[in-house]
Fold each of these.
Amino acid sequence: MSADYIGEKNVAISGIGQSEVGRPSQQSAMQLTADACFKALADAGLTKDDIDGVACWPGDNNNGDAFSPIGPNALISTLGLKVNWFGAGYEAPGPLAGIINGAMAIATGLCKHVLVFRTITESSRRQTDKTASALNNKTIGRDSSFFWQWYTPFNVRSAINLAAMYAQRHFHEYGTTEEQLAQIALTCRKNAELNPNAVFRTPLSMEQYLSSRMISSPLRLFDCDVHCDNSIAIILSRKDIAQDLRNPPICIDGIGSALKQPWSWDQIDLTGMAAIDAAEMMWRRSDYKPKDIGNAQLYDGFSIFALIWLEALGLCPRGESGAFVDGGSRISRQGELPINTNGGQLSGGRTHGLGYIVEACEQLWGRSGERQLPAHNVAVAAAGGGPLASSLLLVKE
Amino acid sequence: MSRKLPALNSDNQPFWQGGEQQTLLIHHCADCEQYFHPPAAICPRCNSAQVSPRAVSGHGHIVSFTINYQPWADDLEVPYVIAIIELDEQVGLRLVSNIVGCAPESVAINQRVVVHFVQFEDVWIPQFEVVS
């Protein structure tokens, strides 16, 4: 440990809540959000009057589209919260940025209890427009976005095209095979079979994986996460206060949020992404080591990202994630490093970030039912692909 | 097939319109003598404002690629190849583009490529063909 002041160590997760995972849901985005928030408050043993901060990634981006229909403004007004601080915004280190911002608000003393949330309704949206999330729909008319204009004129229509080029490069540099990559999807499905909230729960075989439709080579249909309607809320509390609440505090032992490369999908390390910057920072802020991890929840918006996170986090050597996951035993619930134990986003549903925190906490608290791992105290959650990356080291005390 | 086109400004206009003269224009910093992409008014390495577009050879190689099979829109002809190209002028000088003029399944990493332009309205999109 070399950093001098590590303020996140004063912050703990005190409660979690998740709405139904609908495909699609009949509830409105705000109904899903309120459901998740009240569940999280009850879990922590707090009321809305205790909440003095609200954080979200990415917020409603002034348009409230299905990618993130509810932001802090709407939630504060709807629930009648009285806060010292609130914040949201897309330009941050990936889907865990709400947790990181909330932790900073507590570490500075602005807040005692921050409600972090993330709502997504992409399944409902796709009932009427399958192209709703296409990159070329991010801007109207000519593309004035500083970044997407370097992709959309070449018919990069989805982030999968960019993720696929990372996978192709990983295959080329390290000899990773499609059967090895398949283990991410197969492992997630096996875990989802034991998660009543998961979207896809029927068994998936290697044969089914290999015969599934190619979307953007070498990535297939089963390498893509599954859209859903969902909201998740996480309560962050100052650690000394959290010690008197319902749940054993799960402390944020280290944040990884660094970006030391351009914010770009092609000008960065193609097989390390921004994940290498975030992970290096996280471990620098902790005394724990990769061998201490009891459960790893790794971003699987596309399967290749999970392989890259395995390496970036030092859970296996650089370039060896393919061999590490080969056969699937090491990353299974019975293996040395269980990953994505709720089915990840590939089979559990694209909750887009906070689902990894929910599962990491459920496992640490021993509340994961049929899929519960043997008791352990240290977990890692990592989210994002390309230039979006952040990670959290979580420790139950 | 139709294209999503960029909004032109003084920073990106040389890149998107250089093809009218069949030249690929990449921004270059006179102070640190390095190319950079995407173009901008400031060099990202040394922050010098002494930057300007410079014609490059248009030759390079494929760093990675993907064959897109998914018909994201009705007017999209699939499959097509998206690639990350590294230009010969400088190690790490990369851009995203397309590989055209060959069977998508024949594309491979490290193949040598050369630029060709395709015009849509006032934009000349640089694409690459494999050099045999």
Note: Residues 3-124+229-242 of chain A form a domain with the Peroxisomal Thiolase; Chain A, domain 1 fold (CATH 3.40.47.10).
Amino acid sequence: MQRGDMKILAIIPAYNEADNLRAVIGDLRSFGGDLLVVNDGSTDQTAAVAKSLGAHVISHPFNLGIGGTVQTGLKFAHEHDYDFAIQFDGDGQHRGDQIFKIVDLVKRGEADLVIGSRTLPGGYKMGITRWFGSRIFHCLIRFLSGQTIEDPTSGFRCYGKRTIRLFSRYYTDDYPEVESIITAARSGLRVVEVPVLMRGRLSGNSSITRRKSAYYMLKVTLAMVVDAMRGRQLIGES
Amino acid sequence: MDWTKIVSLALSTGIFAFVIWLVRERRLREKYALLWLSTSLFIILLTVSRRILEVAALSIGIFYPPSLLFLVGVLFLLMVSIGHSVTLSRLSESNHNLAQEVALLRKQLEDETAKREQGCKPAP
């Protein structure tokens, strides 16, 4: 297959992002693939706005959380045989002009999952709580899978075909970013991190509040340790 | 027959009757009903004959029989709760998958309807 013929999908998970979507989709105008907004049971005009902007829209009947939302996009990508998919948040943090950085390695067949990192040289600063959590996850991931990931909570990602297949079968509901790295690495997929630039949020708040972050740490740690106890889950080529 | 006996007998037969009623109203599946029915039968049995509890407690070295009752009761409820958490996890997993399936199918339906409508339009 020629490189120019590759089918690429941008998955935009959106929960009440009607106000941000116009800018986000505008940012993706030069992207050159299909746009899919996965509307996670929004109570605002998210679906209608996305449709009017010419994106594919899939609406959950109720709120499933970020994991389920991304997974619906990956299931769509799997069903429609996309060669790779990118995750591009609907809140305006991710930048369209950075996509080529995360897509490149997957396109060249050198990686199965690429994570756009804010902490590598060339990235940007994050808050202290987030930084601390990131460091712990960084160590855990290195311990459990041998992978070195500086910014494991980043949701700016590119999924290759094999990763799409794996995650459309298994992807956790809440706080999936860190756990999915372990799942991918332990399934023999090549996980690579590249530095990218990001913006502050356009509007709305982060899904992880201070109060929830303790639960977040515990839940993700447990999930990762148990995942490591499952043994290798190799994905078949068929 | 002392008051304690009467009260606990009334309570346990009450639970028994309540569970039967729930099944009759189709508000409780037989699978779970069996569990609670056997529990209430067990309590009725213990109420009728205190000897059972005393013998059982003494035989495993517990000198105050009611504490055996508490121990067994707590452990039993713990197991039931864990069982329910497992069921709950399974149900939310299937609920999650169904929601995604519905969303994907609706998208497919919309696409096909749009395609058909476009095909039906008379040529300009």
Note: DSSP finds four helices and no strands in chain B.
